[in-house]
Amino acid sequence: MKHEKMKIIKMLDEILSFSFLHQATKMDIKIEIDGNNTIIKFNDNSKDITGAKLEEIRELLNIEKQSEVEEYYWELIGQRDYADEFTIVGFMTDKATINYSADKGLELTLYRTNV
Question: Distance between CA 27 and CA 91 in Å, rounded?
């Protein structure tokens, strides 16, 4: 469980960067840590997320978790000025759900077993 809190912070950094990019002005974050399991729930009022972009993010977040990639790359999340690192977040996540509607905004839940 080395660096688990920092990994969560880096994952949230990527999500927040995406939200700011999509003009979100309200964001709610809930983190539940229970032993080796972490659930991150994120809601915002992002604007103009297309169906294609939503599907792209859904696919990136639900790729198979790869602990060896996670250990090497997690520190790189958030090092760029644009949001495109959902692939690394996906490598660190066991499962993700994501939904978007113009009236409700973005709803994202990440499920993770801590390494």
Answer: 24
